[in-house]
Structures are given as C-alpha cells and as structure tokens.
Amino acid sequence: MGNCFGSSARVDATLSTASEASKFPSKTSNSSPHSNISIPPYSGKSSAESLPTPRSEAEILSSPNVKAFSFNELKNATRNFRPDSLLGEGGFGYVFKGWIDEHTLSAAKPGSGLVIAVKKLKPEGFQGHKEWLTEVNYLGQLHHPNLVKLIGYCFEGDNRLLVYEFMPKGSLENHLFRRGPQPLSWATRMKVAIGAARGLSFLHEAEEQVIYRDFKASNILLDGEFNAKLSDFGLAKAGPTGDRTHVSTQVVGTHGYAAPEYVATVDWAKPYMGDKRRLFRIMDIKLEGQYPQKAAFAAATIASQCLNQDPKLRPRMAEVLAKLEELQAPKGATRHSKADNQVDPVLMSPLRHHSPMNVTPLASPLPANRKAASRLR
C-alpha cells in the first residue's frame, strides 16, 4: 500500500485508549460512548531508537523498553493459560488474556490492573524463533500511538511468548467480515484508515526506515475508541540506509492459502475504482449507501494509485496520509452507529469468526496463518 520510500527505492475490560507513546500501557479504564467519531491529531509523541543492523540476540533481548517475564509469571497472569482465558488460536499458537500490576508488572487478579494479551507460540507453528525475535527487536524500539505496544516477552527453554497491550475492539478484519446487523460506519472506517496510514508513515519516514511487509486487516488492531494500531512485526525488515538505496524483498506468507478469487480481487476491482458511476459496485453493501460519494471516490482513487504496477508512481505513505486527512468529514457531520461503541456479541463469543481468508484472534495483536504480503509492505 503505497510506496515505502518514494521513487528512490474476547472482552469485558478495556485498556486506556490514550494515544501516547510510553514505555508501558496506562491503567485499565472503561470506554465511554461518544456521539462523534473524532480522529485525534498526530501528537508527535513517537520515537524510534537507533535501529542498528544487525543486532545480536543478546542486544535485542536486553532492551530496557521491554520486560523479560518468567514463564511462571505469565502462567499466573493468565491463570495457568486456562481455556476460558483463550482469546484466539492460529497456526502460530495461542493468545491468552491476562492481568498484570501496572507498576510492578507482576501477575494480578483477574479484573484488576492492566489487561494484556499473551501470545504463546507453538514450537511447530508458522512463526519461528527468527520472527519472534524480529518482533521483539522492532517493537522494543519503535514507539508510536498507531503501533501496538509490546510490554515484554518470555524466552525460557522452548517457550517463546510475547506480551502486548490488550486491544478491546479486536482486529479490523473481524469488524469487516463478522456477521452482525451493525457494520462500521464510513466515519469509523476513515478513522481506522487514517490511523493505519499514520503508523505506516511513521515507519517509512523514520530516520531508520522500516518495511512492514504484512499490512492487512487482521494486523490492524483497534482500541476502545477505534484508534488503529499496527501489529505483528515478525516479517518487518530494515529499509534502505545511506548508499543502500534499494532493499530487495520477497513475497512472504503462507502460499496457496487464499482462494484464487480473493487473490484476483484487486484486478477485477480496478476498473470500478476510477468510475464514479460504477464505484458503488465495489462498496461494502453493509454500508447501505450511507457514505459520501465524493469522498468514497477520492478514497478509491488513492487506493488505485497505491496499486500502480510501477513502484515509482505510487505515492509515499505520507502523501496517502495527507490525502486521507483531507477527506475527514467536518466534526459532527457524520454520525456513527451506537454499535461502534459496544462490544458485539459475536466478538464476545469464544467462537471466532472465520473470514474467507483466515482465522484472526479476537482483541489480540496477533494474526492467524499468514497470507502473502506485497514486497513493499
């Protein structure tokens, strides 16, 4: 989505939704309903420590920004990984809900302290030690309101776990594909798009640029106010630096997983993106026509530009972000459904939604089986 570097190259409690870059998440609080979708301005509270490459495993795991948990600590935090603490499951392993003290980060009683999502990898899962370490490497150094917070990790014997802030609204994919009467409103969708773009722009424009390589709906997580945060950096790669103006990447993910009709979606949809009269044919029918046609066409135009076969003709993510922000409706002009601020029964169910593409854990920063990602994501 866009050119990375320009022409040159399950849920009864919520985490605080304040968008600020901090070492650890803030105290748990309940989200309050609001009538208008507001897109918080970029506060500039982000940071990217020097990302020297390569870094040794010892250097990565000794980062002062993440806590090294013991396996017993996480067993206590998740009530011994009990089934009723399970948030999701995929080819990588399992995701459990847990609680820790906000000051000491030690295990806390359920319903108190900070809510966390604990990703426990299967030894034979798709995500191996290398990707696990890559995630610790990047999220241990990158801090931005639109990147999920990594609180810590556990590395004991064959155990590989990651501890994240809890994202109460789950993934964007669940909201787009779930069965339910209330879809995300246009205003909410634009808010999510802008948040995701901010996260990508931060990665692409940083002094030490980062190629995300896994940008998809299941990796866009939503907090209690529908602020989007990018998750899963297991496939991330350092961008060009100095005289190294080009970085070769490859298509990554689980080959042959998606049905052919989904792989070819972009191709058949392209002609509609540039036709105002036919654009409605590719708009989500769940919106029931409740969207501003002019803004929808403008958004489709941006998406079309990002799909240009020539990387040099794709806009930079900073440009995409600027264009999306221009499309933001005046405050109060567009109301969103009350359902946008409620926990959907489907999302609360332990029965996860099966999308046409994959299974996504709920309210967690973790995707299920990987799909192919474009080389510059």
UniProtKB/TrEMBL annotation:
It is found in: Cell membrane. It catalyses: L-seryl-[protein] + ATP = O-phospho-L-seryl-[protein] + ADP + H(+); L-threonyl-[protein] + ATP = O-phospho-L-threonyl-[protein] + ADP + H(+). Keywords: ATP-binding, Cell membrane, Kinase, Membrane, Nucleotide-binding, Serine/threonine-protein kinase, Transferase. Pfam families: PK_Tyr_Ser-Thr (PF07714). Residues 16-59, 348-377 are annotated as: Disordered. One of its GO terms (molecular function) is ATP binding. Signal peptide: none annotated. Transmembrane segments: none annotated. Residues 81-327 form the Protein kinase domain. This is non-specific serine/threonine protein kinase. Residues 25-43 have a biased composition (Low complexity). Belongs to the protein kinase superfamily. PANTHER family: OS01G0588500 PROTEIN-RELATED.
